[in-house]
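INTERNAL AUDIT FORM
Audit reference: QA-55
Scope: verify that the stored structure record matches its stored sequence.
Auditor: D.O.
Record contents follow.
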Amino acid sequence: MEHAANGREFSYFAPAGYYIALRVGFAFPIAETNALPDAWVEYYTQRGYMLHDPVMQWLYANSGAIRWSAITLPDPRGIFTEAAWHGLKFGAAISCASTGTEGQRSFGFFARSDREFTDEEIELLAHKLRRLHEATAPPTNLTEAELEALRMVRDGLLLKEIANALGVSEGAIKQRLKNAKLKLGAKTISQAVSTAVGYALI
């Protein structure tokens, strides 16, 4: 998802751990990094905290940045207290939404055990997150013919069936799929299809 240098930079600012989700669409991000303590991840997951987590609620409802201590949403499960017991005492939440029509957002939360994040650190983390968000933007240069061919492959049609349905040669379909594969940075047609699905292009 990110270069190792970026991972080191995030760890430097958030030594207690961090989580980043890139390009969250309807349900899942196209990429994520979970550098939180294993014990906290297991504890959090077993208790189904995600739906009740004030940090996650804030990230999905807002764009911008906030310290955990400034989040005023209810915390009936005491997740902030539990997180502090696992060394995640101070945190920052950052969310950036796309300005385009795809409606995707990227977000991250970052934790320390020693002190609050400074304004400068939050600004720098927000800048890094925005860079990753923009770097994983879906391509906008696929033609409708290329997307149509990908949709039909996704739906299980064979090349011959696609060609017959569209009234073109199999060679034309192969070229459309080859073009789509290149534009999506995919090595195989199936990878191109899954990438296009992940980007909500098809």
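Auditor finding: record pair retrieved intact. The CA atoms of residues 41 and 91 lie 16 Å apart.
Action required: none
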